[in-house]
Amino acid sequence: GSPSTGDVRYNSTTAHPEYYDGSWRNFSDPKEVTVDYLVIAGGGGGGGSWRGGGGGAGGYRNSYNNETSGGGGSSETALTLLMGTAYSVIVGAGGTGNENTTGSNGGNSTLATVTSTGGGGGGTYQGNGNAGGSGGGAGGGSGGSGGAGTTNQGYAGGGPPSSANHQCGGGGGGASQVGYQGASSGTGGDGGNGLSSSITGSAVTRAGGGGAGAYGDAGNNAPLAGSGGAGPGRYHGDGSSYANGYNFTTQNTGSGGGGAPTPDGNNDNSGGTGGTGADGVVIIRVPNTVTATF
Q1: FRET label pair with 88: which of 169, 203, 263, 268, CA 20 to 30 Å apart?
Q2: Nearest Cα to 44, choosing from 152, 145, 226, 171?
Q3: What pTM, to 2 d.p., does this model score?
């Protein structure tokens, strides 16, 4: 008859005893284990100078429970790993927000063969956002463009305003949404939203795009600053008080940093520093019968 799990036999060809767990295996073979993962790269830094674009979220790859990956991608295939074998785990750092120039991209995050791409830095005034896991938003003014996202990891950054009177950069792309174009009201300059996962047992939203910089105080409406996408992305700094975009206090979400506003709220003679993106995260869900050592 057909073998059952736990059956044992002697293989006269290989001269080794074998056990059955769906297929016949040598007792000396390394045992395989299937693990689910959520791998998020570091978020991009916000654009410097003034009216900087928001940083893009880090690339988002997920295999758990049919939850989607970033950029509209499907849930990925779980990893099959060998017991007793060491695998590389790298958590990407958030990209720095730079003074008077484009924000730096976030670092890649890696688990074995799975790599998520760091979020793109936000553009400086009249500059492009960088491509990344999710793209950085364009800087305010004309001529720039939002950075592209990576297929099945994240979305593009928002474009520049359609009118020179709309003093706001584009929002950083998020895992589930393109960053908003710079504009004069409503969602102008907002970062794209992130994605929720319950891989840890509780639903947590991560990888939101950073909000763009603009004239005036931080808030939801441009020409005030764009707000960060759920994830949480971060607002830019309060232009009437200080020059810099917001950094992250909630780490390991892979969300983008905020773009720098106009330093004094109405003076374009000098520019500030974009906010730093959040570090990424690597989450591994293993069976209850397995102990993972890091």
Answers
A1: 203
A2: 171
A3: 0.84
